[in-house]
Design a protein that fits this description.
The complex is a heterodimer of chains A (519) and B (233).
Chain A: H1 5-32, E1 35-37, H2 43-49, H3 55-58, E2 60-61, H4 62-71, E3 106-111, E4 114-119, H5 122-125, E5 126-129, E6 138-141, H6 150-159, H7 168-179, H8 191-215, E7 228-230, H9 234-238, E8 254-256, H10 280-288, H11 300-312, H12 324-337, H13 339-342, E9 363-365, H14 366-369, H15 374-378, H16 381-387, E10 416-418, H17 440-443, E11 453-456, E12 461-462, E13 467-468, E14 474-475, E15 478-479, E16 481-484, H18 506-516
Helix pairs in contact in A: 2-11, 4-7, 6-8, 7-8, 12-18
Chain B: H1 2-23, E1 25-26, H2 30-33, H3 36-42, E2 53-54, H4 55-64, E3 92-97, E4 99-104, H5 107-110, E5 111-114, E6 123-126, H6 133-147, H7 153-160, H8 168-185, H9 189-193, H10 196-203, H11 212-224
Antiparallel strand pairs in B: 1-3, 2-4, 3-4, 5-6
Helix pairs in contact in B: 7-8
The chains are: A alpha+beta (519), B alpha+beta (233).
Chain lengths: 519, 233
């Protein structure tokens, strides 16, 4: 039997078509299953730009990230396009272009063929210090991000979905415009991604931002200012508690971002400002929710890499002159007044064997410490028990053998605020859990002698008072956050009285301050 | 011959999968089963006879339907006791019988929260005299959820996806069997949560239990629970 030439050509054509379709299917399958996080050779770079996995569920396409400040400058704090996210106090390292590069604390991952970005640990735990206005900032990983206004950033994002300019076409036009810029850093999105951006991503992002905005609506993020967050009202939103029925006193829990060095020595201590958890692992995973990393999306390997680095990460040593003689006079004063609660200068912070009455890493009752009760009241027993369902399923009795991650089981309602070690204390201003005292000098005064009003968010250092400059409202076009200690959650009372050193004679306070610079 | 062999192997694999997903029973962890107090609070009482709530549906409901909750706090908002650090509120038993399921136990009525003041963390008090008000609130919550149009596989799986990554098989099981079945069953929550013995007991508290397991629990409660009128410790 002979095959007619026509039929033979048809067969060849069909065969070729089959091969083409097969290749296309394989190519698409590879593309849409791709999951490639940014790789950092160095642990510090990994901390600053590495991924927690949060981009998978909550990532913003890179091209949207760079286009949004250009399209919506009216929602930026300074209303000026062309400066990326710097007006929120996000940090762009030297040589980076804020229009196209990512700031510290933002990681990138190619997920399903699209480069998506989101926050990581460093967004809230990396800060800058300047010697004088206009001088080059030092970027210090692990210190509180005292210039970053997370609340304003959230407000920016949640304002966008209601704006008529948030359309696929408008975004693509902006992306095209940026693509013609010779300074652009990333490759142009290809046809498939452009189609996804226009017909899918913009709608998905709107939906997600609307949900986020509504769930977080009960939290007044305009009261945070730079360097602060309402830590434990966020998980209530995540668990979708009906907060309209909540007791009013739990609705405000503003607290300073903490420093996160020397975590190894903190194992077993009561962590968080109110000491509600004694597990470093759980505390890390709880914070990772804030970076969008949920149990199904957590990048275990990369989060563990950061956690491991933080175990021994150290603060920068105080770079300004220290009066050694004076500092040595301060050491015994510290031992007498502070060490019992705040521990020794170096890890492990506790004596071995423990000295009598050593209280570092434990909770002091609220009535005794007398600091602002809002953060304490915001954390409730009802939240603590529900947090025990986070990471549910990750347990040995479900057949999950690896010990990480594990279901949360360490959250507790406490009766006060925890005594933290003071490593790198010079970088942790403003002071107290709510950041209501601008510098260490004032913390050694009774509340009546502390500033009732000051400005937050300046990174120029004030070695005289040990803290950041807090008396300047504006500098180089940047407006600082007016902090009024008479407002809810901002009270600067407490941690005062003879045992707290606020009644010491001035020269002893001076010596103690000098000694604290060596931490 | 070859064809037959393949058919038999395929049938066996499917059969074993189905059997394991519906009947494979795993004992509860020793921290529950070996401690009489925890066994009373969290131990399954014949969970095998109760369809129960599939675990991930149980977890998702308070997060999906806050409008049917009286306040913040998940199941604790309905008045259930809940010990810190423990996965389940008091009165709920989590057990694997095929799929992981949640059923009610004696402690749902025979345990209460006690706190010295409003700001104190409550402790659990086991009480000889039952109080069914918590069951009433649960019943009303579950029924409202089941009647809501958002109680469907699509929306529930979306909520579950924020909490865990289901395997393909479990996803199919939830999507096509467990969620539709639970929606229908929850219109009568008692039959979902309680086995026939507990339903009978709720109907007539004086009737005894024929099951040895229930008799043991009842005896333990009689000697360890707080009698009414006693001040909780």
């Amino acid at each position: 039997m002979t095959i007619r030439p026509k039929l033979r050509w048809l067969k060849i054509a069909l065969g070729a078509l089959f091969v083409v379709v097969l290749l296309a299917v394989v190519a698409l399958a590879v593309r849409f299953t791709r999951d490639r996080p940014v790789e950092c050779s160095d642990d510090v770079l990994h901390f600053m730009y590495g991924s927690t996995g949060g981009e998978k569920m909550n990532g913003i396409p890179y091209w949207f990230w760079v286009a949004l400040p250009e399209i919506f400058p009216e929602y930026l704090p300074d209303k000026k396009p062309g400066r990326g996210y710097s007006s929120f106090g996000m940090i762009y390292e030297k040589g980076k272009d804020p229009r196209y590069d990512l700031p510290v604390g933002v990681s990138m991952r190619n997920y399903r063929g699209i480069d998506v970005v989101y926050l990581n640990c460093a967004s809230c735990h990396t800060g800058t210090v300047r010697d004088a206005p206009g001088s080059e900032p030092r970027v210090i990983p692990g210190m509180p991000a005292h210039t970053f206004d997370l609340g304003a950033w959230g407000e920016f994002l949640t304002s966008i979905p209601m704006d008529q300019k948030f359309t696929g076409q408008r975004l693509l036009d902006q992306i095209d415009k940026m693509n013609r810029d010779p300074h652009r850093r990333a490759a142009k999105p290809d046809l498939i991604n452009r189609l996804i951006f226009k017909y899918y991503a913009v709608y998905l992002m709107r939906e997600k931002l609307l949900i986020l905005g509504q769930r977080l609506a009960f939290i007044d993020n305009s009261t945070w200012g730079p360097g602060r967050v309402d830590t434990f009202n966020a998980p209530k939103a995540l668990l979708n508690f009906p907060m309209e029925h909540a007791d009013r006193k739990e609705l405000m829990g503003n607290a300073d971002f903490p420093s996160i060095w020397n975590q190894g020595a903190r194992k077993g201590m009561q962590l968080h400002w109110d000491g509600n958890n004694t597990s470093v692992d759980e505390r890390n995973l709880s914070a990772a929710f804030g970076t969008g990393a949920y149990p199904p999306t957590l990048d275990t390997e990369r989060v563990l890499r950061t956690a491991k680095w933080l175990e021994t990460a150290k603060p920068l040593a105080y770079p300004y002159p220290i009066d050694q003689t004076l500092s040595q006079k301060g050491a015994p004063i510290y031992k007498e007044y502070c060490a019992g609660c705040h521990g020794t200068r170096e890890p492990p912070y506790r004596h071995n064997p423990p000295e009598n009455g050593e209280l570092v890493g434990t909770v002091v009752p609220l009535q005794k410490i007398g600091t602002d009760p809002s953060r304490f009241n915001s954390y409730t027993w009802l939240l603590a028990v529900n947090q025990s369902t986070l990471y549910a399923g990750y347990e040995k009795d479900w057949g999950f053998e690896p010990s990480y991650p594990q279901r949360f089981s360490h959250f507790r309602k406490t009766n006060g605020y925890a005594n933290a070690p003071l490593d790198g204390i010079w970088l942790r201003a403003p002071y107290l859990h709510n950041g209501s005292v601008p510098n260490l000098r004032e913390l050694l005064e009774p509340a009546s002698g502390r500033s009732k009003f000051f400005y937050r968010g300046n990174d120029v250092y004030d070695p005289e008072n040990v803290g950041f400059v807090s008396s300047v409202a504006e500098q180089d076009g940047r407006h600082f956050f007016p902090f009024d200690t008479s407002k809810d959650g901002n009270h600067n009372s407490g941690h005062e009285g003879p045992v707290y050193g606020t009644s010491l004679p001035p020269e002893q306070k001076r010596a103690l301050l000098e000694y604290l610079k060596t931490f | 011959m070859g064809k037959w062999l393949i058919a038999i192997v395929v049938a066996l694999v499917i059969g074993i999968s189905i059997w394991s997903k519906f009947y494979w029973t795993e004992p509860q962890p020793k921290s529950i089963s070996k401690k009489p107090r925890n066994d009373f609070l969290y131990g399954g009482v014949g969970a095998e006879d109760t369809p129960g709530l599939p675990y991930w549906v149980w977890l998702a409901l308070p997060r999906m339907f806050p409008e049917y909750m009286p306040g913040p706090g998940g199941y604790a908002a309905l008045g259930l006791s809940w010990e810190e650090g423990v996965e389940m509120p008091v009165g709920f038993a989590k057990k694997t019988v095929g799929y992981v399921r949640v059923t009610g136990d004696c402690a749902l009525c025979h345990a209460a929260s006690h706190s010295a003041s409003q700001d104190d963390v409550p402790t659990v008090v086991i009480t000889v005299h039952g109080d069914s008000s918590r069951v009433d609130r649960l019943r009303s919550f579950f029924t409202q959820c089941a009647r809501d149009t958002r109680f469907n596989a699509d929306e529930i799986l979306t909520e579950i996806d924020t909490a865990t990554k289901l395997s393909f098989l479990d996803r199919m099981l939830y999507c096509y069997v467990l969620i539709p079945r639970t929606k229908k069953a929850l219109l009568n929550p008692d039959r979902v949560l309680f086995n026939s013995a507990l339903q009978q007991h709720a109907h007539d508290p004086r009737s005894g239990f024929p099951q040895p397991r229930m008799q043991d629990l009842a005896a333990w409660l009689e000697s360890n629970g707080q009698k009414s009128g006693e001040t909780p410790q």
